[in-house]
Automatic annotation (TrEMBL):
Transmembrane segment boundaries: 12-30, 42-61, 73-93, 113-135, 147-170, 190-212, 219-240, 260-276
Xref: Pfam families: GGDEF, MASE4
This protein's pathway: Purine metabolism; 3',5'-cyclic di-GMP biosynthesis
InterPro entries named in the record: Diguanylate_Cyclase (IPR050469), GGDEF_dom (IPR000160), MASE4 (IPR033424), Nucleotide_cyclase (IPR029787), Rev_trsase/Diguanyl_cyclase (IPR043128)
Enzyme Commission number, as recorded: 2.7.7.65
The protein's required cofactors: Mg(2+)
Name assigned to this protein: diguanylate cyclase
Origin species: Superficieibacter electus
Keywords: GTP-binding, Membrane, Nucleotide-binding, Transmembrane, Transmembrane helix
A GO MF label: diguanylate cyclase activity
């Protein structure tokens, strides 16, 4: 029931957006048309060139997406729809033979233009329907390479057949003839008004209904596809409202075609942006996993040493680098008495204390089982000792109750501190000195801080 309501909401949103967009586009077109009631004959070829370029862009996007994941067979049908449409628009441009020399006196072949327009719409509607069916049956892609090749070949052959039919029925071929526009009067014939126009409306309507039924507008891509179908239905209706092929309706139809294609391009750009953002998120997530300890989410040993090497290169008396190495006292007894799961909780509790103590440019790392290290940038030995003492007191001051059962009993830390004031020593040597100071703290009674002294 909830899913059905979601479908209805998406359908309502699509038609509401379509109504608002078409109304605004209609008003915008009427405002522009009022500026000049007799547009230049070169305007239509110019709009066709823009639409041709946009369709090539969409076809290219679809092919690139298909080659990235060949399981999405439905993308081939959409790519062929837009690629075939772009090729047919070359025939439309050829119907205006003087557009490329900016000359407007040559009579245009409006019948050829409407023939290419008709076959282009039939081809696109049928290929859109094919893509929707392939999207619904995506499991077909798993049937093997032979089936994949058969489907792709069938789509390409159908596209080529429609291109050939458009060519044969145009004035390029004298054996076949169809009259949709009278080139002398520029009036649409009854064959267009009473058959082909309604056929195209029916094809786009069936495509839209199938799209709504199968995809249920679950993605923004299919939402743009639904808007595309609506625009083409209204394109047909606009042409029906005009009796002449050189009237404003012809320009209005091309204007709506261009707008709906732009909407699909913006959808594809949005899809590319989402893919880029997802890849960035995955990269950052992968990078963080590579430098973090999985149990505590502190930095790992490798990151700690890499950072220490960089900071030691700039170490000086004015910019000291301090290292604190700490180890849980009698941690083996915790594991033996309470179990390793409880031991992990103890380690996580200590890690959270260390994380809250350090500054943003410091590094807290887990470098061993129950051994931790802090890297304090621009921190003197005295200040590092104060930090270590604060950590020791904080850990020792907690028990099972104050730690919300993360600690089974009170625990303590032994800590060693070393401060480098020059880049002479290696990172390993600096950590070794802090480690020796930590072991000295253990040997002298545990639960204390010892600073390395030469």
């Amino acid at each position: 029931m909830i899913e059905t309501k979601n479908h209805l909401h998406r359908y309502f949103f699509l038609f509401a957006i379509g109504f608002v967009a078409i109304t605004l586009l209609e008003l915008a077109f009427r405002q522009v048309a009022q500026l000049d009631s007799s547009p230049s004959p070169l305007l239509f070829p110019a709009m066709t060139i823009f639409l041709l370029v946009f369709h090539i862009m969409v076809a290219g996007f679809m092919l690139m997406k298909y080659f990235c994941d060949k399981k999405h067979l439905y993308l081939v049908a959409i790519a062929c729809a837009f690629a075939g449409s772009a090729i047919m628009m070359l025939g439309t441009l050829n119907s205006f033979p003087a557009w490329f020399i900016c000359h407007s006196t040559t009579v245009a072949n409006y019948n050829d233009a409407i023939i290419f327009f008709t076959f282009r719409n039939m081809m696109m509607a049928m290929l859109f329907t094919t893509s929707i069916v392939l999207f619904h049956q995506q499991k077909w892609a798993a049937r093997g390479a032979w089936f994949h090749t058969m489907v792709v070949s069938g789509i390409i052959l159908f596209t080529l057949m429609m291109l050939l039919l458009a060519y044969l029925y145009s004035s390029f071929n004298p054996t076949l003839d169809i009259s949709l526009v009278d080139n002398k009067t520029h009036a649409f014939t009854s064959l267009w008004n009473h058959f082909f126009s309604w056929l195209l409306i029916a094809l786009w309507t069936m495509t839209l209904l199938l799209l709504l039924r199968i995809t249920q507008l679950r993605s923004f891509f299919w939402f743009s596809g639904g808007f595309f179908c609506i625009c083409y239905i209204f394109t047909m209706l606009f042409l029906l409202s005009d009796r002449n092929s050189d009237g404003l309706a012809w320009y209005q139809a091309r204007f709506f075609e261009t707008t709906s294609t732009l909407f699909i391009i913006f959808t594809l750009l949005y899809d590319i942006f989402n893919l880029y953002r997802d890849s960035q998120d995955k990269y950052l997530h992968s990078y963080q996993n590579s430098i973090r300890d999985p149990l505590t989410r502190l930095h790992n040993r490798s990151y700690f040493y890499d950072t220490l090497v960089r900071q030691l290169a700039e170490a000086s008396p004015l910019k000291p680098v301090s290292i604190i190495v700490s180890d849980l006292d009698r941690f083996k007894r915790i594991n033996d008495t309470y179990g390793h799961l409880q031991g992990d909780k103890v380690i996580q509790f200590v890690a959270s204390v260390l994380q809250h103590v350090i500054r943003l440019d410091d590094v807290a790392a887990r470098i061993g089982g129950e051994e931790f290290a802090l890297l304090l940038n621009n921190t003197t030995a005295e200040d590092a000792q104060h930090v270590a003492e604060r950590i020791r007191l904080t850990i020792a001051g907690h028990d099972a109750t104050s730690s919300q059962q993360q600690l089974p009993e009170s625990i303590t830390l032994s800590l060693g501190v070393y401060t480098a004031t020059s880049p002479e020593l290696t990172a390993e040597a600096c950590v070794e000195r802090a480690d020796k100071a930590m072991y000295q703290a253990k040997e002298t009674g545990r639960n204390r801080v010892v600073v390395w002294k030469e």
